[in-house]
Fold these 2 entries.
Entry 1:
Amino acid sequence: MLFDEVALYYEKLESISSRLEMIDVLAELFGKASKEEIKLLVYMTQGLLGPPFDSIETGIAEKYAQLSVEMATGHNHSEIINLYHKSGDMGLVAEEFRKNTKLKRMEHTSHTVNDIYEKLIKISETSGPGSQDAKIKLLSFLISSSSPLGARYIMRLVLGELRLGVGDATILEALSKNATGDRKLKPKLEDAYNICSDLGNVAYVLATKGIPGIEHLGVILFSPIRPALAERLPTAEEILERTGGTCSVESKYDGMRVQAHFNKESKKVRLFSRNLEVITEMFPDIAKALLEDTNCDKCILEGEALAYDDISGTFYPFQETVQRKRKYGVEEASKRLPVVLFAFDLLYCDGESYLSHTYSERRKKLSEVVGKGSVIKLSEMITTSSPKELERYFTSAIERGLEGIVAKDPRAPYIAGARKFSWIKMKRSYKSELSDSIDLVIIGYYFGKGQRAELGFGGLLAAVYNQKRDMFETITKIGTGFTEEQMKMFKSLLDKIHLKKKPARVDSLLEPDFWVEPKYIITVNADEITRSPMHTCGMNHSGKEESGYALRFPRIISDGIRKDKGPEETTTTEEIIEMFSQQKKTKI
Ligand code: ATP
């Protein structure tokens, strides 16, 4: 398949404002690709060059992109900069100057998807002395030998700014539609995706092995499994009711979630964060301890990493763990403040997947695997049928500076990528008037008035994710409580991702001054959740007039952007509705 054809589809996708239409266009595109190409096309459509956890980057910054356009088209630096300042999009700059090149027009080569992919990989692999020049030359060749529209998307891919607004769920539905004619295969594809976190691989397995291949897709060591998530409940009684009368209760550590994969034979360790980025380099002690202090050869286990002082029994919260690393560097910080991995689950061990085993079985295996070392410890746990004992355990966890507890249903399997009642969290905040903090994705921002006009920033429009609809629904505007530094930071980050029109997967009755790509996550506290006709979160979509949900007095509590979550991992509409009903119960 030719990349020029893909570029036409991408152009079409950009102009679409309905998600269903997007699925149709994508399904048609996937239908034209060969079995090998479909994998690459999926990555490209995600704006990537491989699965996200491989973090393949071209290493081309804006400045080098400008130089490539100069070299490819003969236009000079100031022409390029002027147009770039006007459009804010190097893709459009490459397209425009490719159209009006000042150089002898190079033969337009019909690059295939494979060609382009290989060249982009070559750019990413070029390193060492002189590599910047080599990268610029390679990119310049691609621009000058592509069609103008092709140049637009090559440039955006290279810079990691494709921004088609296509989410994982949309791609899964399009793959289903392409394979079967409708969207019904999505749940099965999603299960496979939850196990390997690699949409390209899911597409490839579907294309080469069909539905049986998807049904039998197993755990792949060093491909992260999408993490199981916890529901919330406010009382011990409700937790026990949900877990069949008995549950295991673990301390909720306020650290950084780590999914550890290791193979002792090859001495390979890979640590993944909650949003599946590779963070092995952040925790060298943990990587070493996994190879030295565990009782198995190949394993995937999960735990919470945080700085812990063994002597005083002090747990240091996540922010502090990270800040210390920043201040002293990884090595120095690990001496001053040792990080411990409190292991709480085991997903795979020595050739066997444990995903479908019950929590009790997984925990038993985990306790055999975790040795006696001081870096990897088992998370604290009790099993109880008594609400009083559960309450006491919760109170003692809070008194020791922990975040609360996570109760686990002993009979439940590990449910990858989903928030279910097999894990239930109870935090200190649920016990007061305030409900839990909420993670939101920024979808737009406002100009400032008065003093803020100078900063060009007046506030944010934020949304939650509706999983069923695969849409972002607005829940609040945030106009107060920003420091000047924060305003500057938001303005500069958001300016880079601003869009000319509302993205197809955003549902909003409000119109901010600027729409932005749903990308950045913030954490907010609010006084309460209220009903509101202004916001689309939880609005009845059956056509019947009904109010949505909104936040009262929202205020940002993160110092900036929450980096361990992506836009589809914000608090969901379903959770907001659940929190609203829990809030009503506590008020009675
Ligand atoms: P939060 O901000 O409350 O951590 P979250 O959306 O990141 O929420 P949840 O699934 O709601 O994640 O809560 C579970 C999280 O709690 C896990 O992702 C993990 O990082 C953390 N955690 C700490 N201790 C445990 C434990 N013993 N068992 C499971 N998760 C734990």
Note: The two ends are 63 Å apart (CA to CA).
Entry 2:
Amino acid sequence: MSSPARDDAELVTYQMHVDGKWVDAVSGERFESHDPFTAKPWSLVPRAGAEDVDRAVQAAQRAFTGGEWPRMHPSQRGALLRRLGDLVAENAERLAHIEVRDNGKLISEMAGQLRYIPQWYYYFGGLADKIEGHVVTTDKAAFTFTRHEPLGVCAAISAWNSPLLLATWKLAPALAAGNTVVLKPSEYTSASALEFARLVEQAGFPPGVVNVVTGFGPECGQALVEHPLVRKVAFTGSDRTGEHIYATAARGLKRVSLELGGKSPNIVFADCNMDDAVKGAVSGIFAATGQTCIAGSRLLVQRQIHDQFVERLVAFARSARMGDPMSTETQVGPVTNLPQYEKVLGYIDVAKGEGVQTVLGGGKAERPECGDGWFVEPTIFTGVRNSMRIAQEEVFGPVLSVIPFDDDEEAVAIGNDVAFGLAAGVWTQDIRRALLMSERLQAGTVWVNTYRAVSYQMPFGGFKRSGLGRENGQDAIKEYLQTKSVWISTASEVPNPFVMR
Ligand code: NDP
């Protein structure tokens, strides 16, 4: 199967993957997915409702309780995951093209991401047969040990900015732990999840172990979170939706992990290596057109280098090549969808209304190389106060707020003075300062002299309104397991039945 070419006039029509079969929505309805570079539809995706979700969850429940999957040795589960990783690697280029078509991220970034995704399946495949309980010493006459068991049907709901990567962060540990999964990708980027389901099938996973339903959050996503057979919801998205999902899941006493938004401080000290810090600031906010939860959207610059740093930053960012995300020459692509494009432009207006100075960009990018796409100029604001909306609310676009600070204390105070706590960057050559900052910044990840590094081996997640639980690393698999305590009596006689032992 090849990836659809941009000049194909015909829309690609997708089906969903439920219980090992390719199906349309029960209603027969579909919706269009757009190419952000052309702003034109390129594919049609089934619009799943509650009945479709019920079918998928029932299939996942059947696969969890009967058939091959629960009887499969964990080493075999691991082998299947590694096979899936191999298939993703073999199809990386094609999947990367589909991702770019659907979400407008750069081919240079997505190709790298798709080549990296198999590592999650290898790593968690390797962990599948290393889920070990332990023998516990108790004060009772009993042989006591713990087992770590899967939860059941897990719902995975993800955002549009890195569709397959974010789905993988949930699927790989959930499956390694022995759960079954119903995945609902973002309505803006469903295609890659459906293409991925073909690889799941090809790898030989039993039917119902991985199901993909596509549709809109308030109908398809909501029905999934509410479904009584779903035991865990793993979600990536905005803090507001995350809060709503948390409340909905609480009614069914379901486990929840939430990877939410951020307003991360990228903190530049006067003793930094300035060339590195300029690149780090640019990568923090303009890579992926700022559409990353870890965007370093608040750039805190020590006052004595503020003007010089901003000048170098603006010069560097101004040279960024915008255009077709399919071109390896392009450095800044379009915004993924129309509502997000309008939201980013709205925040630019909010910031201007708050009295900031615009030192770069500040509006739509209407250059010939941007075609009809949803492009926003890389934008840098100075004169930002941390209390302004532009410094407090997540924009999720290429918009940087520069805030000066005087000393370490003030950097920490400003850095932590937001509702979010996903990530932080620190640029300094002083190891003492690096360690102190990494301790005092309230963020799930602190990078020193680097930005945006992630790995399958390193836990990832948020403090404060940025989320609950951890993805990646050995912590992630624990999110999909529950502990069982087993007691085998070694007493020579049954104790008094009327007294608690
Ligand atoms: P949303 O919160 O709008 O949506 C995320 C997912 O939830 C989508 O699949 C959406 O479906 C679905 N959804 C929406 N409403 C409901 C509901 N009531 N019940 C169940 N599911 C629902 O976020 P975006 O897709 O706009 O993504 C951007 C956000 O994601 C940003 O805030 C960003 O910071 C965050 N993010 C966090 C990351 C992290 O790891 N911390 C990584 C990437 C993004 P639909 O698409 O149909 O609306």
Note: Residues 157-161, 166, 184, 186-188, 216-218, 221-222, 225, 236-238, 241, 244-245, 259-262, 293, 394, 396, 422, 462, 467 surround NDP (CB under 6 Å).
